[in-house]
Amino acid sequence: MVVLLVASSLCALSLGTPYVPPHRLAGAVLDGDSTLAGIVVTELRVPRLVLALVAGTCLGAAGLVLQEALRNPLAVPEMLGVSSGAALGVAAPLVLTLSLPAAVQPLLAIGGAALGGGLTLLAAGLGRSPSAVLLTGAAVAAALQAALLVLMVMADQLDLQLIYRYLLGSLSARTWDDIAGLWPWLLVAVPALVLCAPVLSVMRLGDEDAEALGVRAQRARLAALAIAVVLIAPVTAVCGPVAWVGFLAPHLARWFNPAAGAVRWLPWSAAWGAAVVTVADVPARLALAPVETPAGAWTALLGVPAGVALMRSGGRGRAARSAPAVGETLHGPRTAASGAADEVPRAGAPDDARREEAGAGGTRFSPSRPTGTEDVR
Amino acid sequence: MTRRFAALAALAVVCAGVELVAGRGMSPGVVWDVVNGGGDATARHIFFQLRLPRLLVALGAGASLAVAGLVLQSALRNPLAGPEVTGVTPGAVLGAVTATALGLAGWDSPLAVVLAACTGGCAGAALLWLLAGRGRGDPAQTAVHGVLVSAVLGGLTAMVLLVEPGELGSVVQWLVGTTEGRVWQHWHLLWPWALLWGAAAWLLAGPLTLLRCGDDIALTAGLSVRPARTLALLCAVALTAGAVAAVGALGFVGLLVPHLAVAVFGADLRVSLPGAALVGAVVVCGADAAAQLSSRLPAPGLDSGRFTLPVGALTACLGAALLLVVVRRTPSRTF
Fold it and tell me: What is the Cα–Cα distance from B198 to B209, expressed in whole angstroms?
């Protein structure tokens, strides 16, 4: 995965007009704004790459938080109305031509996202059967989508194309200013994530067991939703709801580390989210060369089938590894308590990368794999 | 039963009346004059060339969608199998948008749009059928897969629209479903198609009622299950495609009206199919009238006449609310 991430980052930095070969990238960055290549790289491509990484990380982590908290592999921002709500919050002032300071935009997005997600959870009675939550979410999302479409009908032709691109999730023409607005939100979200990770792994055991262990399931679920909203909304405010990343990334994380618990999946899912968005941005920029396609269109197109395929094959292995997973959750909180939740997988990254290549080469999941994971830790 | 039909028919007439009166530009008095043969030329033109076809298209599309939904739900034995969540409507939208983008069909040649929508709808349904394990999946699984298939098809539509951004303005109205600006041409295309496939669906009502009871019972009763189901699905896809080509992706009508119809008319499809058609017509027509009325109210506040509420937005919101009620009121059933 590290290889994938590095390769796609290099592609993102060097391909395009003007083409900057990889070995000259460092020089171009150091040149700064004295050469054309330097300007293009530092002012356009690096911020875009950073934005892709940040957005992917947030969306991947948020997807995992939602899926684990609702114990539902299909609980993704798109299906819970969170994404549509955030998009509605951003698009509304655009169409109604209210001029707002840039700092307010994430707030509006957060308001919309919280509205959408809260509506779904309220309507579904805070998480009953997974598919009931899902269907309710689909209904709420459809209603919000309809509101969005009404706004689009009201917009004029120029606005319309802008909004449309935005709604699909596009990374084009974002500068350092846009990214600077993200940091405060991330500063809030990351500690919250680290704190909630152990709770998530307890939630996996089911509501009753979690209550027995001292977790208030309903409140934990609400907190998880709040964290997801804080993660998704600022990203949506900047680059639109890049579709289905929150669905694909957690499934990728699970597929490659089937034996791990929520605590270990969280950083992996975030990393996979970053990788997915970065990879998707390369064809988005280059496929129809002079015209840019939004990255969200590619993730929407490829994310759903890939996620479904992963979910299906993962579902078969799940029965075999349910026992190790329970053991894992007991280990989980200890890892997070040491404050090193982010560091653990990265320390073992080369090792993991090798195992993943073996896994991609067709290794079936077997009960012996969990022991391998333990060794890495 | 006849009384219920009569009541619904009366309701349909009331809705149609409100719809005819609700639009902008003519006061109810002028409409009454025109109906009685009076009125000036402009009023007559508005009434006969704009209002009347719009009303008829709304009625026809609502009826088609409702019948398609009921047929789908019966054939798949799945209370959640509306055209929206089985990939039929998104497929039809994709087909129509693709055909328009490729220049194979224009909005001036509606027949090609219908055919393209039909192909797309069939493709969407086939995709779901393949994914959900060839019809032996349980209802919840099928519904979940349907939502996912719809998401993929929506993504494809978005891609097509990106390649052809010029279409965007006309297509957006149509993505949400609207009866705005429908003329006689649309109606002339809609009614034979809807009548043909609606009649076919009604002929299939007996076998479909058996299918509703389950494959085993249907087999015991001497029905060859597979061809009957295929034919029924074909009917449903064709009806949906016709409606989508006429008014766009009108949300949730095909999912929820069948539930209403079964609640009112019972599960015998020979009765409840025409009933569903009537209910669908009433719902869409009423929603359209309400949309027109409500878009007249805030007009002074917002900037003048630009704001029109498409009927699809209203049906989607109503449908979503109703769906929430349905899901909440059946706690024992795991969808």
Answer: 16
